[in-house]
UniProtKB/TrEMBL annotation:
Pfam families given in the database record: Exo_endo_phos (PF03372), zf-RVT (PF13966)
Record's protein name: Reverse transcriptase zinc-binding domain-containing protein
Ranges of residues in domain Endonuclease/exonuclease/phosphatase: 4-225
GO MF annotation: an example: catalytic activity
InterPro entries linked to this entry: Endo/exonu/phosph_ase_sf, Endo/exonuclease/phosphatase, RVT-Znf
Organism: Pisum sativum
Domain Reverse transcriptase zinc-binding intervals: 754-824
Amino acid sequence: MIIASYNIRGCGCNAKLHSLRKVVGDSKADVCFIQETKIHAIDNFPVDSVWSDSLADWSSKWAVGRSGGILTLWKKKSFILVSSFVGEGFLGIHVLWSGFNLFLVNVYSSCFIEKKRAFWGRLVEFKAKFPDGLWCVGGDFNTVRVKVERKGISNNFNLKEAEDFEDFIRSMDLVDVPLINKKFTWFNLDGSACSRLDRFLISEKLFDLWGVGGIVVGDRSISDHCPIWLNCKIVDWGPKPFKFFKGWCEHDEFTPLVRDVWKNTFRGGKASYILKEKLLAVKIKLKSWNKEVFGMLDLNVDKAVGELNSLDLMVADLAEDGLVDSVRRNREVASKEVWDTMFLRDNFLRQKARCNWIRLGDTNSKFFHSVMKGRFRRNNIASLITPRGRLEGVEDIKSEIFNHFKSRFTEPMENRPTLDGLNFNVLSVEDRDLLEAPFQVDEIKEIVWLSDCDKSPGPDGFPLGFLKKCWNFVKDDVVNFVQEFYVRGVLPRSATASFLALIPKAPKCVLEEIIKIQRNFLWGDGGGSRKMCWVSWDKICLRTEEGGLGVKNVEWFNLALMSKWGWRFLNDKHAIWFKLLQFRYGSGLQSLGDVVSKSTLSNYSLWWRDIRLVCGTPLRGHDWFGDSISCKLGRGNSILFWKHCWLGNSSLKLLFPRLFEVCSFPNALVINCGLWENGGWSWKVGVDSTLLVGELLEDWKELIEILKDVKPCTNGVDKLIWWRDVGGFSVRNAFKRLYTLNLAISNGSDFRFCELKRLWKATIPWKVKLFGWRWILGALPTRKELWHRGVILGVEASLCPLCDLEEEFVGHLFLKCGKVKFIWKEVFSWFGLDFDVLLRSSDIDTIVTGEDVLLFLLNSLDGRVKSYFFAFIWPLVCWSIWNARNSLVFEHSNWNVVEILLLIKSIGWDWISILSKGNIDITRDLWFANPANCIGL
Ligand SMILES: [Zn+2]
């Protein structure tokens, strides 16, 4: 049965009649509700002209004066008329259709709230007389259910009225049929306001009986209302996918049942095949078990309640002292049964409805049912707009979606450059083995345990919670499957979605593993124990000239890769995947940069959640993704006034934080922050003018000044520009952006960076450079540092192991310590200099850090000796001191200045002769006797 409704605003003239015939023709309606006919009993309305092929019947409520009038028209053969009834704002007919009592109510509601309430009340009263009837109430209700059903006239929304309307719908036990192709049914003359005034409310049963898929909103022509009609194509989308319900797990029979199926399903072949077959067997069993056990849920609750009540009656009849223990026990059991069955049912319904059941305060199963069905209707895709026009029908929609995702997962063939003839650095055998080690049972278990159990990851319907629950007997098959994947490197077609969910988790583990290997390589000496990291990982990932080691930060790289989706999301608004997201998460998708709350996140899919987190999590205090995008203002309909960067180099939120604090619409679009009037654009930013005093007023004046010459361009298109745009967004560029933001942690003086640079260039072995880097950064495990970090306790423990007099810090251990001074003295005299004189002439108390030591050397030395010290000697001396100190601490060697000096000279010789690859013409003896001669190599 197709029913159309149209507020026609008078149907006296031929143009209106023509328009009405078009609506009936377009909709193929059997019944037509017309409102505001403005016709009177005496007018001659040509009813038969609406349907050309059959005799039509009608019922009417006449207009009073120049306004109102309701007319219901129908094809006589559609049903048998029993009676008609009228009241304030409605005209109903009671008909017999397919053996049902059907009530068709045509609504033209007054705009006065008292009259609306009268209308609702009358109808509810009337319905009470026919509780078993089916109802279809449609027309112009002149009110809305929620705020988003109105646009433009924002002050026109009345919450109380909306709640009353909602009550009416609930009391009538009706369901609001969603609109398919438009959001609104009414538009005012200049298009500045629109709302959803017209609708159909129908009995739940009619969805199936009529095959209702939604409401089609027709074109608006002669009236300010659009015609609407029920879309009644019975659609069969094919078999419903299997879905796993968490509530099953709570049932006592569940685990034994699954274990039984699992153990008794014997299949040979590949692990993936075995796993698939077992899951399939479980699926089939669970489906029938669900019908047997959970189909009876309501019945079981009723039974348990009945039992408890009859026991209560028994107790009431017994004498005071006659309460038998067995009755009391039975009563306890019955009471527990009531709670258990109710708990089971609620749990089951809760997951089905996937909504916060506490919201309505009780476990209203009717509410759950309606939410459940409503969700299904909302998720139902009745039509799809594509570049090739609008698609309808199961086959077309299915194949469009299939092809879209297929193209996303196929790679076009292209000629790519090859990497032949390049020599890469090669991993050591141990490192390679570690990276390639097969997944361990514990690793797989960890991933399963870390995952969100409630989410059903895909079309196979098994959530990871299923694996958790049944881990004991499914683990062998799961581990076999994952290890088979590891060996073969391909996922078979039969791979189920749950296991695909394991894969994105796995790269994350790989990521952590890589970082762990890198860290251990740097700080540890193997052995697997946890090593202390002396410099933060982010800092290590900076370039050497910025104080790091130039290690590639795989985490940042991963962020950059993920953010590509974020960028495409903002720029690919015509893509189907964007439309699907919008469909699912609503239109509040404008800014990825908004930090999303945890509770919102839990409703998101894993993939979407990850993208939101990558693009929405602040990095070192920056909305790194949002702040990296600047906009070129066009129409202003996709740029956020405060949050996007569209004026100058920073967002208005950052420029005017105080104003942003008090603004009324933090997420307002530019186009909604002003309007065109008298041929010009004037800004209406939405800041309460009473707040504009003092500093706020100053800010405000400045903002107005900035905005003065700016206006949106009605024909333009808003454009997004990525940070330092050269050719748009690239992963490389995003990585650079992340790198730049992380530069904030590279705190250090120009002197430090200059010395580090010199160190990296020095002709000394790599391990010594690394030592020198730690020495300059203050990241050596001297006793004072260890004491600071709580590794050793007690002030005495932080004393210098050489002299036991002062704390061991870099400035002391490497220069000021009495035991160390001798070494420097000898080294200086080796170069023909007097260390004591130099030491006396400097302020030794100020020497604390490695940088201070270097500054002392810088001020004390001259000419070529100085450059020699800085290119070579200081790392050599300090490295030797450190080694000798470690031998003393850990191997209890003696502190022998002569030996240390000899070591310095001979190590120095090794470096010179090896690193200069023999291009020297001095001898070892000459080096030992007079190193100054070697200067100028
Ligand atoms: Zn000392």
